[in-house]
Each structure stands twice: as structure tokens, then as C-alpha cells.
Amino acid sequence: MDVLAWIQDWFASNCNGDWEHIEGIHIMTLDNPGWGVDISLSDTGLEAEPFQKTVVERTGEDWLHCFVEDQVFKGRGGVRNLEEVLQVFRKWAERGTDGT
User: Fold this and answer.
1) DSSP letter at 7?
2) Angle (CA) 13 77 63, round 5°
3) What element of type H or E holds 97?
4) CA distance 51 to 86
């Protein structure tokens, strides 16, 4: 399954009538340019899962930083790194939910 279909399924599985109104997923552009992804972990199976900060610096345009802060997964990446940021979240989320 591609990461876009996967994140849609993950979002749908966490919608409970409240979470999607108060928390949710936010994808935005950055002015450097690049992408920002904020995914609330509150009231999900990931809120207590440890996350190892990820920093990849390939070039000024090819980079990503992913971390968890205040129960929010925050992924930032270069202009062509949105899919990679989502893949980092997916890999962690799948590991966190299946116990491996």
C-alpha cells in the first residue's frame, strides 16, 4: 500500500468524533521551501510510544527532520521530501502498533 493510502487509513482509524475536530493531521508548506507535517498523537495508540529523532541532511534541498514534541509528530523536509516524511511516520507507527 502506498503511503498516501496508508495515512488516509491511519487517519480514518483514529477518527472518533472528537480527535479529528481537535487534533488531526496538518500538512503545510514551509518558506525555505519545503514541507511540514504535524500529526497529533493524543488519544491514539502512539501517544506513549518512544520516537527516535530522525535527521537527514543530504543537500540544502534534500533533507528531513522528524521528532515528537508535546504529543505531536513533527516532520519537516525539503521540497521533494513529503513522501519520505510520511514514510518515517508510517514505519514508526507500524512498529509501535505491532509491538516489534
Assistant:
1) H
2) 135
3) helix 82-98
4) 14
